[in-house]
Every structure is written in structure tokens, then in C-alpha cells.
């Protein structure tokens, strides 16, 4: 009992020191209320002070709450001061460009970042309103920023927020110009953040320059240049931004490109940080696109498209037979986009990640095009090939696509949607659909059936235990075939890859959510042109593979 009392006293003292330095009255009141409930609130207080949010290659991301283990004005002030100090130490010149989404706290965090930058003598350019992440990534390149900050938690739950950093050409180099940071920049920024002194001593300057709507107009103009100006445009599209910030920019891009403006799900059209109509604001989650499908049905749409809340991801939903709809997997959209660009004669490097389908590799090999495979994350995809060949397309299976690396050097759900629409409109003139094109690719290269086993946890130790289990007791067979290749990517990355002659399993913790993920793939040859039978065999094999991997992981 004495030890417990000592622990409580220690955490109480940490909290008091935090309160003395916290610049936000609302946050101070929140933490004071937690202190007032001691000792009953001891577990909650301990969690808030379990350690600071770590600034990694995805920046910061966490729940909105007082204390170092949360997103709040104090944490953001410290992060901004560390980032600005690091930029100065690297000799970086030019303005800091800052964007934000419509989540709780996003605008306040963005404005504080601008004040910290100007307080340190660096110009700050603030996007004019909540806008998609790809607009910020574009702005860093377009405006010659030394770096960019995007305040967003993407598709995380409503109670979260986050802080992503992009570098300009001066510090990011040609491949990292407008891209998310990679090591060692993340460690350098983290060290600079930890060296920030009392927040009361961080100088705050004026609010910076709020940019005009011409920036968004420029983004839209460049986005529409991605597609053929003379291609077919007869396409009816249903769309949802999932209560995020994508609707205004996407509909403007479609209109400028000459497409009919998509119909937007009415009760999901406007930004709403509560995300009231979805249990989880991620188009991949069950039920998230139910309203979109209802709209597509009622309007006779050819296609349905969803962005995630910050519009850097793009989900595509197609008619499945005459009566239903299904969401295409990220791998399916990825190979459709790659194939479309190849057919348009776009040459250069095509890239994806180690957890994506191997079909892109097969396509590039057959068509004599350069291919590269990277660790997960667009920060790696846009640096694929090390600059030996210019990147022209990259994708990851988590609904992320980069169809124009010179426009946005990150995933971009707006230009991806435009390119999908271009492809679908062209196929429609031939009386064909996206699924018809997928069948053509399967007939040529075999069915590459992918799926994912995903386990969300409350205790991160369960993920560590599962990774230790698969390393200690690695399966020797999968689907009755010997495992002929085992790759463990530690210490570079916490990833285990298993392969048989016809199957592949990639196991890794999520980089942004408390999830353990296993990416499954089975390749099934098509015999006598019978794609549907091959698809059925592949689906059965993946279901069996899922059960085997789940048992091996103990989840």
C-alpha cells in the first residue's frame, strides 16, 4: 500500500508541474478535475503521464486530453517549438506551411504552430480553412516551404488528433520534397522537442499569413491536369467525405475536369468532428459506406467513391452483379490505376509496399517497366528506387494512391478519384466496367486474392506477444504447402514475411492504430479462361489461410 501511495504522490507531483506550464485553461481545468478524484482516478492519471507522445515518422497522434500522453495545446506548443528549432539548426530557410482538418482542436493547434514559428522569426503560412491533407502536401512544394505541418488524425476515432510533418526541397531533397519525414529527421525532431524548456518561455509571435482560396484553386487546376482533357466524361458518381474535409475540393475538381458533379451523401457532406453517422470514420470499416451505397442505388450511379476524413485515401465501391455493391480492395484499385496509366503510355517507376499484392510486380515484369517494393507508408513509396528512375505511380493496399508524384508527393484521394473516374468513363463507352477490367488482368496474370486479418487491442502487450509467438514458433506449412521463405525485418522494421509457392503472409503491428495486422495473399492460376472458378478457389484458400494464421498468432 505504501508503494501505491508513493506512486500516486509521484504522479500527482508530475501533474502539478504540468499544470504550472499548461497554456490552456480548459486543459488545466480538465486535469484538475482528474486530480480532485484521486485516489479513484489514479489509473487514468497514470495513463495520462505514462510518457510523452513520441514524435515518429508519422508525427504525433493520440487522444485529445490533458497531460503529456495526449494531444493538447501544451504538447502541440512543445512539438512546434522543437520542430522550428530543428529547422533552424539544419539551416533550413523559407516559410512553414500549416494545414488542418476539421477535428476538435485542429484549427487551434494549427494557429498555435503558426505563432510559435513567427515567434522564432520564421514566416508561417496558414491554409485558409480545413482542407485535405494532399492540399497541404501540394502547398509545401508550390509555395517553397521549408516544411509543412498538417494537423489531422486522418481516419482515427473522433477523440483523436495528430500532427504530421513534411519537408521542403532544401531539407528533404528531391525525393522528399513535399513528402513526410523519414529517419533520421524524426529522431532529430523528437530530440529537439524534448530539449524545449518551460512553455511559458516559448515566444509566441503574430498569427502568420492566412492564405487565400487561390491556393486551393491552384491545387484543383493541377489535379485535373492528371487526366486526359479529351477523354469521356459520361459517368454518374455517388460520393461521401465521411464528415471530413474532402467534399468541396473533390466536387470542384470533378466539375473543372468536365465530369458531372458527384452526388454527395447529404448527412455526411459537411465536416463534423463527431462523425455522427459512422461508428468509425474509416471507409474500410463495416457499415461506413452504407449511406453511400444507398445514394448510389437511388441515383443509378455507375460508381461510388468515399474519401477518409482528411481525403488522402480513396475507396471505390462498384456494382457486384445486378443487385448489390462491393468495395474494391486497395490492391484492386491500385492495379487498376497502374494498368490504366500503363495503357496511357506512362513510363517510369511503379512502386508499392511489402504488404500489397504481388500483381503489380507481375504486371511490370511482363510489360518491361521498372518496379520497386518498399516498407509500408508513403514516406517510403515516394522515395522508391532511390531516384534511379522517376516515380510515376505508387500505392499501398490501405486505400492510398499517388497518381501524380510531381503534383503531390504523398497519397492523394482527390486525384485518385479523378483517375478512377477517367478509367470508369472510358470503360463505360465500351459497355464495360472496372470489374470487367479486373477479370482481364486475372486472366492474364492469375487471380491475386488478398485479404487482411486485423486485431484491435486495448493492451499493446498483446501485439508484442503475438509477434514474439510467430517468431518463436513459425509455421512450417501453410495451406498444406511448405513455407519455403521466412523473412524477419527486425531491427529495421517489426515485420515477419512467410511465403509458400502460392501464398504469402506479411505480419506487422499497425503504425498508426493499436492493431496487429496480417496481410494475406493467394495466387491462383486461371485455367481455360475460367476466372470465376479461379476466384472461388482463391477465396476459399484465403479463408483457410486466415484461420491458420490466426491460430499461429493466438488471436
Question: In words, what does this structure look like?
Answer:
This protein has 555 residues and is of the alpha/beta class. 39% of the residues lie in helices and 19% in strands. The strands form five sheets. Strands 1, 2, 3, 4, 5, 6 and 7 form a seven-stranded mixed beta sheet that branches. α4 runs parallel beside α5 (106-119), α9 crosses α10 (247-257) and α12 (330-343) crosses α15 (413-428). The protein is globular.
What's the gist of this structure?
By secondary structure, the protein is of the alpha/beta class. The chain is built from 18 helices and 23 strands. Helix 4 crosses helix 8 (185-194) and helix 12 crosses helix 15.
Key features?
globular, Alpha-D-phosphohexomutase_SF, 555 residues, seven-stranded mixed β-sheet, alpha/beta, A-D-PHexomutase_a/b/a-I, five-stranded mixed β-sheet, single chain, phosphoprotein, A-D-PHexomutase_a/b/a-I/II/III, Phospho-sugar mutase, 39% helix
Question: Ends: how far apart?
Answer: 35 Å
SS elements, strand count: 23
Largest sheet: 7 strands, mixed
Helix and strand composition category: alpha/beta
As a percent range, the share of helical residues equals 25-40%
Regions with little confidence, pLDDT below 50 for 5+ residues: none
Question: Which secondary structure elements does this structure contain, and how are they paired or packed?
Answer:
Layout (H helix, E strand, L loop, with lengths): L1 H20 L3 H12 L5 H7 L11 E4 L9 H17 L6 E5 L5 H14 L4 E3 L6 H10 L4 E5 L8 E8 L1 H4 L6 E2 L4 H10 L14 E2 L3 H11 L12 E4 L6 H11 L5 E2 L25 H10 L3 E5 L6 E7 L3 E4 L2 H14 L5 E5 L5 H9 L3 E4 L3 H4 L9 E6 L3 E3 L10 H16 L5 H12 L1 E10 L4 H12 L4 E2 L2 E2 L2 E4 L7 E4 L3 E7 L5 E10 L6 H23 L2
Parallel strand pairs: 2-3, 2-4, 3-7, 8-9, 8-10, 13-14, 13-15
Antiparallel strand pairs: 1-5, 4-5, 5-6, 10-11, 11-12, 15-16, 17-23, 18-19, 20-21, 21-22, 22-23
Cofactor: Mg(2+)
Keywords: Isomerase, Magnesium, Metal-binding, Phosphoprotein
Organism: Micromonospora zamorensis
Amino acid at each position: 500500500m505504501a508503494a501505491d501511495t508513493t506512486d500516486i504522490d509521484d504522479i500527482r507531483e508530475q501533474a502539478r508541474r504540468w499544470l504550472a506550464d499548461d497554456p490552456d485553461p480548459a486543459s488545466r481545468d480538465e486535469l484538475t478535475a482528474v486530480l480532485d478524484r484521486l485516489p479513484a482516478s489514479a489509473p487514468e492519471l497514470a495513463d495520462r503521464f505514462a510518457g510523452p507522445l513520441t514524435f515518429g515518422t508519422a508525427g504525433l497522434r493520440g487522444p485529445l486530453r490533458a497531460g503529456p500522453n495526449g494531444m493538447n495545446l501544451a504538447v502541440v506548443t512543445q512539438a512546434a517549438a522543437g520542430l522550428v528549432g530543428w529547422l533552424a539548426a539544419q539551416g533550413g530557410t523559407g516559410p512553414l506551411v500549416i494545414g488542418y482538418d476539421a477535428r476538435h482542436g485542429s484549427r487551434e493547434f494549427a494557429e498555435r504552430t503558426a505563432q510559435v514559428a513567427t515567434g522564432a522569426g520564421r514566416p508561417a503560412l496558414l491554409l485558409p480553412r480545413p482542407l485535405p491533407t494532399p492540399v497541404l502536401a501540394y502547398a509545401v512544394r508550390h509555395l517553397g516551404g521549408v516544411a509543412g505541418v498538417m494537423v489531422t488524425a486522418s481516419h482515427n476515432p473522433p477523440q483523436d488528433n495528430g500532427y504530421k510533418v513534411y519537408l521542403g526541397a532544401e531539407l528533404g531533397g528531391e525525393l522528399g520534397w513535399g513528402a513526410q519525414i523519414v529517419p533520421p529527421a524524426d529522431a532529430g525532431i523528437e530530440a529537439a522537442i524534448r530539449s524545449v524548456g518551460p512553455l511559458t518561455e516559448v515566444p509566441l509571435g503574430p498569427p502568420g499569413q492566412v492564405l487565400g482560396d487561390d491556393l486551393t484553386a491552384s491545387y484543383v487546376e493541377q489535379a485535373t491536369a492528371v487526366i486526359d482533357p479529351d477523354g469521356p466524361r459520361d459517368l454518374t458518381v455517388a460520393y461521401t467525405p465521411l464528415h471530413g474535409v474532402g467534399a468541396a475540393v473533390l466536387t470542384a475538381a470533378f466539375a473543372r475536369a468536365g465530369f458531372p458533379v458527384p452526388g454527395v451523401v447529404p448527412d455526411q457532406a459537411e465536416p463534423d468532428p463527431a462523425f455522427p453517422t459512422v461508428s468509425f470514420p474509416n471507409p474500410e470499416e463495416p457499415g461506413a459506406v452504407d449511406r453511400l451505397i444507398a445514394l448510389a442505388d437511388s441515383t443509378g450511379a455507375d460508381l461510388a467513391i468515399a474519401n477518409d476524413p482528411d481525403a488522402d485515401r480513396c475507396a471505390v465501391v462498384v456494382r457486384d452483379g445486378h443487385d448489390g455493391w462491393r468495395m474494391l480492395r486497395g490492391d484492386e484499385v491500385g492495379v487498376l490505376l497502374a494498368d490504366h496509366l500503363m495503357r496511357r503510355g506512362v513510363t517510369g517507376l511503379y512502386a508499392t509496399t511489402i504488404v500489397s499484392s504481388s500483381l503489380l510486380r507481375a504486371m511490370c515484369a511482363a510489360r518491361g517497366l521498372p518496379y520497386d517494393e518498399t516498407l509500408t507508408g508513403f514516406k517510403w513509396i515516394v522515395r522508391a528506387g532511390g531516384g534511379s528512375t522517376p516515380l510515376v505511380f505508387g500505392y499501398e493496399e490501405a486505400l492510398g494512391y499517388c497518381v501524380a508524384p510531381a503534383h503531390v508527393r504523398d497519397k492523394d484521394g482527390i486525384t485518385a478519384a479523378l483517375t478512377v473516374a477517367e478509367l470508369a468513363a472510358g470503360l463505360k463507352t465500351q459497355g464495360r466496367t472496372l470489374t470487367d477490367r479486373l477479370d482481364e488482368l486475372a486472366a492474364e496474370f492469375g487471380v491475386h486474392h488478398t485479404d487482411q486479418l486485423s486485431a484491435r487491442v486495448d493492451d499493446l502487450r498483446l501485439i508484442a506477444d503475438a509477434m514474439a509467438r510467430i517468431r518463436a514458433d513459425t509455421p512450417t506449412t501453410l495451406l498444406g504447402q511448405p513455407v519455403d521463405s521466412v523473412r524477419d525485418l527486425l531491427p529495421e522494421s517489426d515485420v515477419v514475411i512467410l511465403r509458400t509457392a502460392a501464398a504469402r503472409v506479411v505480419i506487422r503491428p499497425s503504425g498508426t492504430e493499436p492493431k496487429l495486422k496480417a496481410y494475406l495473399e493467394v495466387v491462383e492460376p486461371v485455367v481455360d479462361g475460367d476466372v470465376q472458378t479461379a476466384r472461388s478457389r482463391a477465396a476459399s484458400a484465403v479463408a483457410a489461410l486466415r484461420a491458420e494464421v490466426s491460430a499461429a498468432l493466438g488471436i
